[in-house]
Amino acid sequence: MTKYLISFPSPAMQVAPEDLPAVSDASHAVVQEARDAGVWVFGGGIDDSIPPVRVNADGSVSAGTYPQTAELDGGYSVLELPTYDDALLWAAKFAEACRCAQEVRAFHYDPLS
Length: 113
Description:
Blueprint: E1 2-8, H1 20-37, E2 40-45, E3 53-55, E4 61-63, E5 75-81, H2 84-98, E6 103-106
Antiparallel strand pairs: 1-5, 1-6, 2-5, 3-4
Helix pairs in contact: 1-2
C-alpha cells in the first residue's frame, strides 16, 4: 500500500479562538478513526517554538533551513492506504474537522519503510 501525506499550512486554519477546542476534538476523532481502521502511520503539528536547523553531510549543524522550506509549518498526517481515492476521502475528513483545505501527496513506494 502507498503512504500518503495529508497536510495543511498553519495560515490555512482560520478558526476563532473559542472554536479551537471543537476543532481539536474533531481532528482527534478523525485520528482515532484512522487508528481504528488500521491506516494511521504518524501525525502531528510542527512545533514553532523550536527553531529549525540543518544537519549537513559532514555532521555539522547550521541554523535555518533550505530556502524553499523556510515556511514549513502546520499539521501533518501520514496514512497507509490502498488507493489515491481513499487518501482523498481521508483528506476530506481532516478538512471538515480542521475547517481548512488539506493537501494530499503520495510517498514513493519503499518496501523497507
